[in-house]
Design goal:
alpha+beta, Jelly Rolls, 5-stranded antiparallel β-sheet, 3-stranded antiparallel β-sheet, 8 strands, YjbQ-like_sf, Secondary thiamine-phosphate synthase enzyme, UPF0047_YjbQ-like
Length: 136
Protein backbone atom coordinates (compact mmCIF):
# COMPACT_ATOMS: atom_id res chain seq x y z
CA UNK A 1 0.00 0.00 0.00
CA UNK A 2 1.17 3.49 -0.83
CA UNK A 3 -0.87 6.52 0.22
CA UNK A 4 -0.01 10.16 -0.32
CA UNK A 5 -1.53 13.36 0.96
CA UNK A 6 -0.61 17.04 0.87
CA UNK A 7 -1.45 19.54 3.57
CA UNK A 8 -0.40 22.90 4.97
CA UNK A 9 1.01 23.56 8.40
CA UNK A 10 -0.30 26.60 10.22
CA UNK A 11 1.87 29.68 9.65
CA UNK A 12 4.33 30.17 12.47
CA UNK A 13 6.84 32.87 13.37
CA UNK A 14 10.53 32.49 12.70
CA UNK A 15 12.05 29.78 14.86
CA UNK A 16 11.91 26.07 15.57
CA UNK A 17 8.50 24.54 16.27
CA UNK A 18 7.41 21.04 17.33
CA UNK A 19 4.67 20.11 14.85
CA UNK A 20 4.30 16.37 15.49
CA UNK A 21 0.65 16.64 16.52
CA UNK A 22 -0.36 18.81 13.59
CA UNK A 23 1.35 16.47 11.14
CA UNK A 24 -0.22 13.38 12.73
CA UNK A 25 -3.71 14.91 12.46
CA UNK A 26 -3.22 15.43 8.72
CA UNK A 27 -1.99 11.94 7.85
CA UNK A 28 -4.05 9.23 6.20
CA UNK A 29 -4.68 6.09 8.28
CA UNK A 30 -1.32 4.48 8.98
CA UNK A 31 -0.61 0.78 8.38
CA UNK A 32 0.49 -1.53 11.19
CA UNK A 33 4.11 -1.28 9.98
CA UNK A 34 5.75 0.81 7.29
CA UNK A 35 7.46 4.09 6.57
CA UNK A 36 6.33 7.71 6.56
CA UNK A 37 8.19 10.06 4.25
CA UNK A 38 7.64 13.81 4.77
CA UNK A 39 8.74 16.45 2.26
CA UNK A 40 8.44 20.21 2.84
CA UNK A 41 7.84 22.08 -0.41
CA UNK A 42 9.81 25.20 0.45
CA UNK A 43 13.37 26.49 0.16
CA UNK A 44 13.36 28.76 3.20
CA UNK A 45 12.07 26.29 5.81
CA UNK A 46 13.15 22.79 6.81
CA UNK A 47 11.92 19.71 8.63
CA UNK A 48 13.82 17.51 11.07
CA UNK A 49 13.49 15.36 14.19
CA UNK A 50 14.97 16.36 17.52
CA UNK A 51 14.34 16.99 21.24
CA UNK A 52 10.70 17.83 21.93
CA UNK A 53 10.52 17.73 25.73
CA UNK A 54 12.40 20.91 26.71
CA UNK A 55 11.38 24.13 24.90
CA UNK A 56 14.82 25.60 25.63
CA UNK A 57 16.19 23.32 22.90
CA UNK A 58 14.08 25.18 20.33
CA UNK A 59 15.47 28.52 21.51
CA UNK A 60 19.03 27.22 21.40
CA UNK A 61 18.59 25.89 17.85
CA UNK A 62 17.41 29.33 16.72
CA UNK A 63 20.37 31.02 18.45
CA UNK A 64 22.95 28.66 16.95
CA UNK A 65 21.60 28.93 13.40
CA UNK A 66 21.41 32.74 13.60
CA UNK A 67 25.02 32.79 14.75
CA UNK A 68 26.14 30.40 11.98
CA UNK A 69 24.21 32.18 9.20
CA UNK A 70 23.42 35.77 10.21
CA UNK A 71 21.37 38.22 8.18
CA UNK A 72 22.89 41.17 6.30
CA UNK A 73 26.12 39.49 5.26
CA UNK A 74 27.56 42.11 2.87
CA UNK A 75 28.72 39.62 0.22
CA UNK A 76 25.28 38.03 -0.40
CA UNK A 77 23.89 38.73 -3.86
CA UNK A 78 20.34 37.30 -3.53
CA UNK A 79 18.74 40.08 -1.46
CA UNK A 80 15.62 40.97 -3.49
CA UNK A 81 13.25 39.30 -0.99
CA UNK A 82 14.84 40.81 2.10
CA UNK A 83 17.81 40.24 4.39
CA UNK A 84 16.34 37.04 5.87
CA UNK A 85 15.76 35.26 2.54
CA UNK A 86 19.22 34.05 1.46
CA UNK A 87 20.17 33.09 5.04
CA UNK A 88 16.87 31.15 5.14
CA UNK A 89 17.84 29.23 1.99
CA UNK A 90 21.25 28.36 3.45
CA UNK A 91 19.76 27.22 6.78
CA UNK A 92 17.14 25.11 5.00
CA UNK A 93 19.86 23.43 2.93
CA UNK A 94 21.82 22.65 6.09
CA UNK A 95 18.89 20.85 7.75
CA UNK A 96 17.07 19.45 4.74
CA UNK A 97 13.62 19.12 3.26
CA UNK A 98 12.75 15.47 4.01
CA UNK A 99 12.55 12.98 6.84
CA UNK A 100 11.62 9.31 6.80
CA UNK A 101 10.17 7.74 9.94
CA UNK A 102 9.22 4.18 10.87
CA UNK A 103 5.60 3.26 11.47
CA UNK A 104 5.09 0.66 14.21
CA UNK A 105 1.76 -0.55 15.56
CA UNK A 106 -0.04 1.99 13.39
CA UNK A 107 1.83 5.01 14.82
CA UNK A 108 4.89 7.09 13.98
CA UNK A 109 7.70 5.45 15.95
CA UNK A 110 9.59 8.37 17.47
CA UNK A 111 11.90 8.06 20.45
CA UNK A 112 10.74 9.07 23.92
CA UNK A 113 12.01 12.65 23.71
CA UNK A 114 11.73 13.16 19.95
CA UNK A 115 9.37 15.35 17.94
CA UNK A 116 9.08 16.59 14.38
CA UNK A 117 10.29 20.16 13.94
CA UNK A 118 9.24 22.80 11.47
CA UNK A 119 12.33 24.98 11.13
CA UNK A 120 10.99 28.35 10.00
CA UNK A 121 13.70 30.71 8.78
CA UNK A 122 11.69 33.63 7.37
CA UNK A 123 10.64 36.61 9.48
CA UNK A 124 7.14 36.68 7.95
CA UNK A 125 6.36 33.19 6.68
CA UNK A 126 3.11 31.84 5.37
CA UNK A 127 1.65 28.39 5.95
CA UNK A 128 4.07 25.69 4.83
CA UNK A 129 3.10 22.84 2.47
CA UNK A 130 4.08 19.24 3.15
CA UNK A 131 3.69 16.03 1.16
CA UNK A 132 3.29 12.89 3.26
CA UNK A 133 3.82 9.51 1.62
CA UNK A 134 2.98 6.37 3.58
CA UNK A 135 4.49 3.02 2.58
CA UNK A 136 3.19 -0.07 4.26
Amino acid sequence: MVAQTSFRLTARPRGFHVVTGEITRNLPPLPETGLLHLFIQHTSAAITVNEAADPDVLVDFESIFNKLVPENMPFLVHTLEGPDDMPAHIKAAMIGNTITLPITNGRINLGTWQGIYLCEFRNRASARSLVATVYG
